Amino acid sequence: MRIPFFLSVFALLGIIAGPVVAQEKEKGAGSKEFDPFADGALEALEALEGKKKTEENYLNPGQVKELTKLAKPSLVLVRQLGRDGKRRGTGSGFVVSEEGLIVTNLHVIGEGRPIEVELSDGSFQEVTGIHAWDRTYDLAILQIDPKGLDLKPLPIGDSGKITQGELIVGFGAPQGLSFSVVAGVISAIRKLDPGFIGEGQTPDYPMLQLAMPIEQGNSGGPIINLKGEVLGVVTLRHRVTDNLGFAVPSNDLKALLEKPNPLPMARWRTIGVLDERLWTQVMGAEWTQRGGVIKSRQLGEGFGGRALCLATQDVPELPYELSVRVRLDDESGAAGIAFSADGKDKHYGFYPSGGKIRLTRFEGPDVYSWSILEQLEAPSYRPGDWNELRIRVEEKKIIGWVNGEQILEIEDDGLRGGKVGLCKFRHTEAEFRGFVVAREIGIRSLDPADRDRMTESISKFLDEENVEETIVELSRESEHGRTLLLERAEELEKLATSLRSLEKDVHRQVVVNELTMALDRPDSEIDLFEVGLQIARVDDPELDLDHYRTSFSRLVSDARIYLDQTALEGGAKELASALRDFLFEENGFHGSRTEYYHHANSYINHVLDDREGLPITLSVLFVEMARRLQVPDVYGVAFPGKFMVGVDYLDEETKKTLYIDVFENGRVINRTGAVREIWDLLGSPPEKSTFEPADAKSIAVRMLRNLVDIEINRNKTPDGAADYIELLLAIEPEAAQERFQRALLRIQGDNMKGARDDLDWLLEHRPPGIDYGRLKVFRGTLVEE
């Protein structure tokens, strides 16, 4: 029996007495999605060529001159500075406030770098802070000191009123040439096809399509209409033609201006930057870290573009091993492991280069002092993919592996001692993850009895017949052999699909076990950050848990220093206020303005990376940091529609409570203000229980319900909610709504027995929230097989 899923949901929605899921917020932030022009917009624009050229269709030189005169005082050149202080990338920008606010693209300023702007009068101004930024829209608002400057802001127009074919003028700095101007037309407002820029990099919101020349360096420049109003910010150009570009609509910029997340420059320069306590960079290049992945870009300063990134940790005595997983953007490049490094020119390198694996001894600054000890083919190497490199250093010998397969063993003792780390050459862009150094690295050999038991389990799952004998038999029948072998191949592909499904189920069960264990302790001892990590892990088996645990611990350590400096003798109120300032003013954590319902906002690791999240994930960070910092009486509060942080404190022996709205940059309200907001939302006064502290399990349940809501109610992909529902039921078996949802999912997947089990469980235990009369009728339609 198979019932169309959405038909089941709509037909049976009345079975659930309450809402299907608890939503974190009634509506998302950011501009409303729109696409008013048809796909044939370009063709329509081209048809204008056949019409009479009137003044309404084309800008005359006088208009361009007047608009240029108006805009030029507001234009700036944005330059990113290298670690050596030299100017590197350039882009465009424009003034939007007399208070020193300048708009540009986020990709123009990068991460972790000093920035300067050149004003229209030729003066250079240091950027003192980042007033706001947004990765989704690739926008950044810079802050300079306005003292003594005569800044001329451009007015921001309403991109919602744009008409197709509207005449525009664009300004920018192509190839670093300042203050150029070009006229054009808005040909469409459209979403770009997935993969237009690259996998996972193409914006998925409507952009202004510009029929005008766009060159490198125009990024961040304004697009203005005939009134001199900014309608968009140039963001990218077409890869093939220079006469087609795209801009972020001005209304998306307005959202950023209305809800900034200011960050001092000193803090900005820590985002994406390698922790100097863990890594030392040698010979330049650009090394960044995000999500446990170290990325290397730019040409190194050494001969052949060589650059190193050495770990500061102590290296074990001989023998020792080190390994890392590496992925190259281009197999003509080279990047991998460095060891026995003196911190200058001398070291070994073990790395892929040109599709082969090299072991090289570097004993000086140039090729004349380099010795390629081995260069060989490695069948285990996977071009374009992640590859694990491992080296064992002994007193007289070096042994190397690629993806677990030993490929070399060589007698060489030219260099010993020193540091270990990463190396790169040429213009290679490389990614590294999972760097480890230890006395011995490897997989523990499996006990024979365990191996036999596991092999038998897998064999039972596959239910495989005598494949080899069958193939031998088929080979005797040459006339039909190929057809039968293809049929067998299709069967094996199905088996492979089953194994992948099994792997997913095993991973989910591992997460269930870890999440249950994390919650199975007194509430005061539960690590909410670990709970959030396990929830995020269900979608990302490769999630680097240790990296994020370490990153969060460092954030807590930095917060401890800040609290000691600002509220050392304070009570709960003063300490919580200092923690609020540390997170939202000093480090730029903020509520998501744009893709509110994006999964990343519900995953604590992404919140840590992007400093952006939902009320509940930002609250989890706050409450867990307070717990580790021993700030008393700080807890989460599950208000309807928005999660907040509560802080109890004494005011002249009277107990009071303040509430921190973490989504609104740490806005503080008292209980009266909270009652008023909840009353406005519900139309009635809140229950007393509304203000009670939320325990760890209820917080985890609410986080999972947000994710279920995203999949079922917003993405319309109910299958995507399955893992979240399984996790939720593992920690809250009495969740009636989710058990009913799982029954529907099981019907959709032809798992009728599982569906009947869920419905029978509901009818037996009868948790609140279900119309059991209707449920019993529905259960009667599922006939036993």
Report on the architecture of this protein.
β10 (222-224) and β11 form a beta hairpin. The chain has 20 helices and 33 strands. The chain has a 7-stranded antiparallel sheet, with no helix packed on it. The chain has a 7-stranded antiparallel sheet with strand order 15-16-27-18-23-24-25, with no helix packed on it. The protein has a 6-stranded antiparallel β-barrel with strand order 1-2-3-6-5-4. The model is unreliable at 1-13, 18-56 and 477-481 (pLDDT under 50). The protein is α+β, with helices and mostly antiparallel strands.
SSE map:
Layout: H1 5-12, H2 41-47, H3 61-71, E1 75-81, E2 87-97, E3 101-105, H4 106-109, E4 115-118, E5 124-134, E6 139-144, E7 167-172, E8 180-190, E9 207-211, E10 222-224, E11 230-237, E12 245-249, H5 250-258, E13 263-264, H6 265-268, E14 279-282, E15 284-290, E16 293-300, E17 307-311, E18 320-328, E19 334-341, E20 346-353, E21 356-363, E22 370-376, E23 387-393, E24 397-402, E25 405-411, E26 419-425, E27 430-438, H7 448-462, H8 467-475, H9 478-519, H10 528-537, H11 545-566, H12 572-586, E28 590-591, H13 604-610, E29 612-613, H14 615-628, E30 634-639, E31 642-651, E32 654-661, E33 667-670, H15 671-682, H16 696-714, H17 722-731, H18 736-748, H19 752-765, H20 772-780
Parallel strand pairs: 28-29
Antiparallel strand pairs: 1-2, 1-4, 2-3, 3-6, 4-5, 5-6, 5-13, 7-8, 7-10, 8-9, 9-12, 10-11, 11-12, 14-17, 15-16, 16-27, 17-26, 18-23, 18-27, 19-20, 19-26, 20-21, 21-22, 23-24, 24-25, 30-31, 31-32, 32-33
Helix pairs in contact: 9-10, 9-17, 10-11, 10-16, 11-12, 16-17, 17-18, 18-19, 19-20
